[in-house]
Amino acid sequence: MTFFRQSCLLLALVLLVSVCKAAPYTPETPTHKVATLYTTWHDTARARDVPVKIYYPADAKSPCPVIIFSHGLGGSREGYGYLGETWAGCGYIAVHIQHQGSDDAVWRNANGDGFAALSRAVTDPQNALNRALDVPFAIDQMLALNKNPKSPLYGLVNADEIGMAGHSFGAWTTLAVTGEKTVAPDNLVDPRIKAAIAMSAPVVGGGAKAVGQFTDIKVPVFHMTGTRDDSPIGDTTAPERRIPYDQSTIPGTCLLILNGADHMTFSGHIMGISQASDTHFQSIILPASIAFWDAHLRNNQEAAAWLYKGPFAKFLGTQGTFETR
What we know:
The chain is α/β, with parallel strands linked by helices. The protein has a single domain (3-324), classed as Alpha/Beta hydrolase fold, catalytic domain (Rossmann fold, 3-Layer(aba) Sandwich). Helix content is 33%, strand content 22%. It has ten helices and nine strands. The chain has helices at 3-19, 81-89, 105-108, 114-122, 125-146, 169-176, 243-247, 278-297, 301-308, 311-316; strands at residues 34-43, 48-57, 64-70, 93-97, 157-167, 193-199, 221-228, 254-262, 320-324. A nine-stranded mixed beta sheet has the order 1-2-4-3-5-6-7-8-9, sandwiched between helices. Strand 3 (64-70), helix 2 and strand 4 form a beta-alpha-beta unit. Helix 5 (125-146) crosses helix 6 and helix 8 crosses helix 9.
């Protein structure tokens, strides 16, 4: 995490304390030393490589909750580092999967026609299915590393505290493995996942085809979007981003709509180019996500009260709207 981004996060949390003095909880600042582990796992059953970048608290003394993260179309394991670094700094293990077939290789190898190549990749049902199947495979590999004395993650993986998160196509992946109805032939739900964060979730086919699409979600999901969150590729409009939340009934499900945030806000970059507004929005996204994970993966009731009972909404103020189930 850059010094500037870390300073902004610390400033945001200071502001949280000032507006929520009566609250017994505020999201923690990153205090753990963060290390990264690069590896590529091979799924023999699918003859498929799954590259990952794992952020973890190097000084952890006990098992940590695990968050599997799925990037958007054209992304990679290198993206969304602000999330991985902060979550690991707060005692979580963040596993950033790279989904081959819908990753950055699609546009990098497109000979100048990256938009068309990305459009083909996102409409290929095999890419969608492989994304969803990458998730339980990654969880299996993490549980194997937990038992491997030669791994730096030996004994550090809490198998009972697993979350899932993703942005855009990664949000589709997130919802597919937690209960969204898909056209895939198999049941893609992984019951080991206890909670999820879906950033800019797509509504396949648009709002007119969304009837019942999200009614079977099995876990609490924190939906995040923005007032300018129209799809650069696809047919989901900004107002339609709330449909997954509207159709969900699981207690703890919530919806954050950031004023002025667009589709790329949550990735923090456009092909590596930062936007001036990124750090501002991250100063909201990060503490909100930490509180959500603390509430649902660590069963921290004070975190739940902070997120759902008013203090977070007070901190958010006019910067967005927040709704809960």
